[in-house]
Design brief:
The protein is of the alpha/beta class. It is built from five helices and six strands, in the order H-E-H-H-E-E-E-E-H-H-E.
Length: about 140
C-alpha cells in the first residue's frame, strides 16, 4: 500500500507541476518579421539575443517568435529559447512559438505571422488581440 500511495503522490505532483506551466492570457502582435531579418535576434533587438543570437539558423528559424510575460512560467533569461504551444481559445488554432523576447503586457506578444496563423476568423485582427492558452512544451531541438 505505501508504494501505491507514493505513486499517487508522484502523479498528483507531476500534474500540479504541468498545470503550473500554462495559462490563458491576452496576446498582441509584434512586427519581428524574422524572415526579413535572416532570423537575426540582434537585428530585431530581442531580449534573448544576449544568450541565443549565436544559435544556428535552423534553431532560430524552426518556430515563429514570441515575447513572453505571462503570469505562469519562467521569466527573463530563464524563459529564453523555451517553446510554447499557443492555442486561440476562440478558434482552437494552434502554433508552437519560441520565446525570444520579454514584454510587459502580462501575456504574449507574438510575431505577426504566428498571430495571423492563429487568427483564422479575423477576430483577433479586428479586436487588436487574441485570447490564447499557452503551455510550455519541449522544443525538440
Amino acid at each position: 500500500m505505501p508504494k501505491l500511495t507514493l505513486l499517487v503522490l508522484l502523479l498528483v505532483s507531476a500534474l500540479a507541476l504541468a498545470s503550473a506551466q500554462s495559462g490563458t492570457v491576452m496576446s498582441t502582435y509584434n512586427l519581428y518579421e524574422p524572415e526579413k531579418h535572416n532570423w537575426d535576434l540582434m537585428a530585431v533587438s530581442a531580449f534573448c539575443s544576449t544568450w541565443d543570437a549565436n544559435q544556428p539558423l535552423s534553431w532560430r528559424s524552426r518556430y515563429g517568435w514570441t515575447a513572453f510575460c505571462g503570469p505562469v512560467g519562467p521569466h527573463g533569461e530563464a524563459a529564453c529559447g523555451k517553446c510554447l504551444r499557443v492555442r486561440n481559445t476562440r478558434t482552437g488554432d494552434e502554433q508552437i512559438a519560441r520565446i525570444v523576447d520579454q514584454c510587459s503586457n502580462g501575456g504574449l506578444d507574438l510575431d505577426i505571422s504566428v498571430f495571423q496563423s492563429l487568427d483564422s476568423d479575423g477576430n483577433g485582427n479586428a479586436q487588436g488581440h487574441l485570447i490564447v492558452h499557452y503551455e510550455f512544451v519541449e522544443c525538440g531541438d
